[in-house]
Amino acid sequence: MSVDQNTVRHIARLARIAVRDDELSALAGELNSILDWVEQLGEVDTKGVEPMTSAVAVTMKMRDDVVTSGNLQKEVTENAPGSEDGFYVVPRVVE
After folding, report:
1. Which helix (H) or strand (E) holds 87?
2. Kindly report the CA angle at 51 between 45 and 54, in degrees rounded to 5?
3. Model-level pTM?
4. How far is CA 79 from CA 71, 72, 82, 83, in A?
5. Residues 26/41, Cβ–Cβ less than 8 Å
6. 71 φψ region: left (φ > 0), alpha (ψ -120 to 50), beta (else)
7. Helices 24-42 + 5-14 axis angle, to 10
8. Tell me, what DSSP letter sits at residue 48?
9. Contact 24/9 with Cβ under 8 angstroms?
10. Rounded to an integer, what distance in angstroms lies between the CA atom of residue 44 and that of residue 26?
11. How many other CB atoms sit within 10 Å of the CB of residue 11?
12. What is the pLDDT of residues 44-92, one digit of tens each?
């Protein structure tokens, strides 16, 4: 895939980025380099490689799923601009 100046102009408009006409050719070259690099990544053989979330093998620390504090309705709604019966009062948006 090759990016030309018109494509750069279109991408800049979609991204709401102001790009001067004298910058278009340089940006097109940079975008083409990035796309070439991504294309090279697609050629890498990843069969047998497990997906990972970290470069280091880490196991998640688990904790018991227990309620540590409860019935805080009054404290939670205390700073609300409006509350009623333990619930937030918000302006009506649908009539």
Report:
1. strand 87-88
2. 120
3. 0.51
4. 16, 13, 8, 9
5. no
6. left
7. 90
8. T
9. yes
10. 28
11. 15
12. 999 998 888 888 888 888 989 888 888 888 898 998 999 998 899 998 8
